[in-house]
């Protein structure tokens, strides 16, 4: 999806947590209201609906995903600000199919392993 988009894509990863492991059971795309190739903000009403729908099914927000076009899948300064507000896993993909997943611990960013099963 990120390969074909001219703007950053974004959304939620819903699932559950066991200890330090997060299990993603559902991916929900949310419109990028900035319609920008270099930044994202999720459309607020879509965010609320997505979270409400997931919670009704017993799922919680375990991550946020978005794309970086033409740059590596590492947290930007703007991402770090968002990571402070949303202390979940941040999955970043690029337009070449690369990805990285990160959590903010205090003031340090730690990369976490992604396992697809």
Explain this structure to me?
- The protein contains two helices and six strands, in the order ββαβαβββ.
- The protein has a single domain (10-112), classed as Cytidine Deaminase, domain 2, CATH 3.40.140.
- The protein is globular, with a radius of gyration of 14 Å.
- Helix content is 19%, strand content 39%.
- The chain is an alpha+beta fold.
- It has a six-stranded mixed β-sheet.
CATH topology: Cytidine Deaminase, domain 2
Mean pLDDT: 93
The strand line-up of the biggest sheet is 2-1-3-4-5-6
Which residues form runs of ≥5 with pLDDT under 50?
A: none
| Computed Rg | 14 Å
Number of domains: 1
Summing up helix and strand content along with how strands pair, one would put the structural category as alpha+beta
The top level CATH class name: Alpha Beta
CATH superfamily: Cytidine Deaminase, domain 2
Number of helices: 2
Order of helices and strands: EEHEHEEE
């Amino acid at each position: 999806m990120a390969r074909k988009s001219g703007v950053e894509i974004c959304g939620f990863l819903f699932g559950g947590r066991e200890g330090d492991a997060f299990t993603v059971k559902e991916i929900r795309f949310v419109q990028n209201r900035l319609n920008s190739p270099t930044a994202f903000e999720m459309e607020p009403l879509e965010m609320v609906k997505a979270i409400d729908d997931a919670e009704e099914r017993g799922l919680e927000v375990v991550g946020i995903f978005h794309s970086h076009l033409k740059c590596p899948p590492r947290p930007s300064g703007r991402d770090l600000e968002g990571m402070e507000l949303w202390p979940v896993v941040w999955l970043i993909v690029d337009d070449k199919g690369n990805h990285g997943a990160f959590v903010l611990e205090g003031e340090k960013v730690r990369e976490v392993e992604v396992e697809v099963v």
